Amino acid sequence: MKVVYRKEQTSLGNESFSPSAGKPALFVDLIKSKPGIEIFSDWEPVSREDLYLVHDQAHVDAILECRKSNGFGNTLKSVADSLIYTNGSFYNAAKIALKEGIAVSPTSGFHHASYNQVMGFCTFNGLMVTAVLLKRAKLIDEIGIIDFDEHWGNGTMDIIRRLDIDYVKHMAFSDQIGSDYDVWLQGLYASLEDNFQNSTLLLYQAGADPHIDDPLGGELTTEQMRLRDRNVFRFAHDNKIPIAWNLAGGYQKPIEKVLELHFNTVEECLGAFLIEN
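Given the sequence above, the corresponding structure tokens read:
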């Protein structure tokens, strides 16, 4: 499984409640020696023009030029410079997944970013940048976004509605908050079949923040998180639907607790795709 990473997508020195700006390098360092993992760095970032496809041009320019606060609420150049790489990582992961079945982008900070606003540690919406670029290139017909971060992807939905995009199907874990999670997990595979059977590609936000110990979450046990991921990856594998996934939220401290949850997602992905059952 290719991990689509360049050091430019990690931003150091960003002081924030969210660790996501510095998480890519930590994640890659954790998994790089695991069998079945290949760090892939031969790719290019997205352009400003690519970001303009789903965001207001003046909004994009102001953020990249450090004249407007990013999703972390600051104007650090290191964060601004990383954004074309975080979005580029996810887009390239999606292209690789279309060819190879799976790929991972060690990135966060997408789904709260709306057409012209930042929010919740999210600046530009790499999910929608990827979807629109792939559609324009005629690489997909229908694309499925499985957003299993703790929080609702309001930015994703804003862009879908504002640009009248009809080829993206969206499923959110946030719609299940307060449910019987064992029952939800038992029916998850069938729900994925109902929603995404016709998708050309799946984009999976494997958020760590639904974990029961997360200060902004508090829903799923570690084993339930594994079952969540297992259902998603086995559905994709069984139905031969390519899947690109990313890290999304996670706010426990120390950060090693968050990285452990992401590591579990790696294991579930490898188990579904690289080990024949």
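The chain has one domain: 2-273. Try to locate this feature in the token string yourself.
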